[in-house]
Amino acid sequence: MTPPPGSLLTARDLRKAYGPTVALDGAEFSIHPGEVVAVMGPSGSGKSTLLHCLAGIVPPDSGSITYDGRELAGMSDAERSALRRSEFGFVFQFGQLVPELTCVENVALPLRLCGTPRRKAERAALTWLERLEVDDLGGKRPGEVSGGQGQRVAVARALVTAPRVVFADEPTGALDSLNGERVMELLTDAARSTNAAVVLVTHEARVAAYSDREIVVRDGRSRDMERAV
Amino acid sequence: MSIGHTLLGLLESGPRHGYDLKRAFDEKFGQDRPLHYGQVYSTMSRLLKHGLVEVDGIETGGGPERKRYAITEAGVTDVQRWLATPEKPEEYLQSTLYTKVVLALLTHRDAAGILDIQRAEHLRSMRVLTDRKRKGDLADQLICDHALFHLEADLRWLELTTARLDKLRAEVAA
């Protein structure tokens, strides 16, 4: 099926089961460049599975995912890995920074994996740490910074490769209200300024309020709330 | 919001004309709903009648005469009492939505759809407030936060009710 006009990432009729447990049961999704779409729903509804399928981390049992005109299923593992490294960025609930590396090395890591020389990668990393207001933490290790600071470092790492899609899975789930809000402001401002699309998985309405629109996943099926009204 | 108490509170900083009161009210509290002149003058007449304000002076220029109002001791006590009294939590929305959901179940309509429409409307309001908060000063942020937390509570109720629809359907049918 043809993706909607202008759509960067589209999923049609996604189905995925883990043994007898159905995680996705005909889910649909589409996102345009520069758009922030919240994926909401109760625990166990399938929203994280949807994100993992969209990002090419988990293959669906059936259905199609099209990124920039290309079917994910038609790509080799190496091609999908390259896509995740260079065109996708990821922010998780607990940052998942590498504890042995400094903050600036963590942010530079995706660029280093793409072959960028160390100095150039760390210069770019510092620029992003500045934008996320944590450039003073560059030399520290993740264990030496607070949860809110660590999450800003994780956002910088997600954006350093200038990804076209950022996948954020409960990015403020471990933060207090003030830190969560600031992370959302910085994440959505930065993504909009680079025209990156953001797939934002959250169960918090206050976080979803930073999106342009939302879809709700229940029992593995998605509902576009723009069409609910 | 009690307009009378708010105007009284504004008078505590010093006497003002009705026009000045309206301007101060709109600037501080009336972003979404500015006061009508008629509301100000009818409220001041009532406060005057109850001895909570008094006329501090009358100016007669080229136009109509302008009264300047001052708060009385009784007015100050009234504002203090109002400030110290907690507001009754708003239950109106939930009861209306509850009625709609039960009616939908009784008439075999799409109750989940009604909740989803309300949910989308709530989130739309939350987006507007979040945007206003991002662009506003600290006062804007605090006002918007208050509204956002209330809307969030409603949304949680909507989610929970959606999750309990099957149970509610069975109870309504019984």
Observed structural traits:
heterodimer; A: 229 residues; alpha/beta; Rossmann fold; 34% helix; globular; B: 174 residues; mainly alpha; Arc Repressor Mutant, subunit A; three-stranded antiparallel sheet
Question: What does it look like?
Answer:
The complex is a heterodimer of chains A (229) and B (174). Chain A is an alpha/beta fold and 229 residues long. Helix content of chain A is 34%, strand content 25%. Chain A has a domain at 1-85 and 196-203 and 210-229: P-loop containing nucleotide triphosphate hydrolases (Rossmann fold, 3-Layer(aba) Sandwich). In chain A, strand 4 and strand 5 (70-71) form a beta hairpin. In chain A, helix 3 crosses helix 4, helix 4 (118-131) packs across helix 5 and helix 5 runs parallel beside helix 6 (177-193). The mean pLDDT of chain A is 91. In chain B, helix 6 packs antiparallel against helix 7 (138-163). Chain B has helices at residues 3-11, 18-28, 37-49, 73-84, 92-106, 111-135, 138-163, 165-173; strands spanning 16-17, 53-59, 66-71. Chain B is mainly alpha-helical and 174 residues long. Chain B has two domains: 3-84, Winged helix-like DNA-binding domain superfamily/Winged helix DNA-binding domain (Arc Repressor Mutant, subunit A, Orthogonal Bundle), CATH 1.10.10.10; 96-173. The chains are: A alpha/beta (229), B mainly alpha (174). Chains A and B meet through helix 7 and strand 9 of A and helix 6 and helix 7 of B.
